Amino acid sequence: MKERKHNTARKYSSKLLENFLGKRNENEFAKTKNRMLLAVRIADALKSKGMNKIQFSRKIGQEPSVITKWLSGTHNFTVDTLFDIQKVLGIKLLNFEKEATVQIINQYEIKLTTARQISTEQEKEPSWMPFGKVINCEYRVKQ
Amino acid sequence: MKFEIVKLESYSGSCTTVYTVILDGQKDSLFEQFIRENQSRYPGEVQNIIDRIAIIANITGARENFFKINEGVPGDGICALYDDPERELRLYCVRYGSVAIVLGGGGEKKSKKIRKLQDDPKLRKENFLLRKISAMITDAIKEGIIEWSEDGKELLCDEDTIIIEET
């Protein structure tokens, strides 16, 4: 069997290259990342639906060149465009629905004293109360 | 023609390895030349290109849709990082699937009407140079001088550096 080569290319850097990495504007970087990730989601949805760019452009009523731009990761989508894409591809790109929140009114600490009956029958067939019968129950509001 | 392929370690990531080329007798790589030529006039665009390379390398991989493909001859992998008509700069590269890219040079599109590289001598020069480089890389692979690692991310050789020379 042929032996694989094991030396990799020389690692290279320079002040110029490092300066540009260091000068990154985190806000701009995040915006660029979001555009590219949106493009990835749309491209993946097209792939999973077995739809090509031309078919998608017809369904959404746009020129194929517009779809190319959407998928390029450079497009600044409007909410309306994202809404249309969601509808055609059946994916979620926008989420305006208010998320359900749980409000905790009181928290309790519960102390249960149980008497576990150890029998081979119970071990084989655990009851809904795995610690045995409750013989005492105390609770207090947790501060 | 003779050149060295170098790995831009700080530009590479878990998804894609980023390479560029240093032509024999030159100090800067092709990608550094591109930055030097355009950084003062288009600092924002240069930074955006670098950001996109970082996102490709670390998060998304070099997906085909992020590039203008078929900018060379069939099968040579020459493409340009996507640029729409509003953008002033074009950067050429060779794409090896989604896991490795070789950054070349590029330049200003001069006129927003430029759609074909034949319309611009600088872009034409950079494009043809990268075509030549891509062809020489392919030949070096065929001749067994270099090879891709199993995951396709690393170019491997027997020597300490990857130097490719026209025979």
In summary, what is this structure?
With 143 residues, chain A is of the alpha+beta class.
Annotation keywords:
heterodimer; A: 143 residues; alpha+beta; two-stranded antiparallel sheet; 4 strands; B: 167 residues; 7-stranded mixed beta sheet; two-stranded antiparallel ribbon; 3 helices; 29% helix; globular
Structure description:
The complex is a heterodimer of chains A (143) and B (167). Chain A is built from six helices and four strands, in the order E-E-H-H-H-H-H-E-H-E. In chain A, helix 3 packs across helix 4. Chain A is of the alpha+beta class. The N and C termini of chain A lie far apart (71 Å). Chain A has a two-stranded antiparallel ribbon with strand order 3-4. Chain A is extended. By secondary structure, chain B is α+β, with helices and mostly antiparallel strands. Chain B contains three helices and nine strands. Chain B has a seven-stranded mixed sheet with strand order 3-4-5-6-2-1-9. In chain B, strand 7 and strand 8 form a beta hairpin. The longest helix of chain B has 22 residues. The N and C termini of chain B lie close together (9 Å). At the A-B interface, strand 1, strand 2, helix 1, helix 2 and helix 4 of A face strand 1, strand 2, helix 1, helix 2 and strand 8 of B. Strand 2 of chain A pairs parallel with strand 1 of chain B.
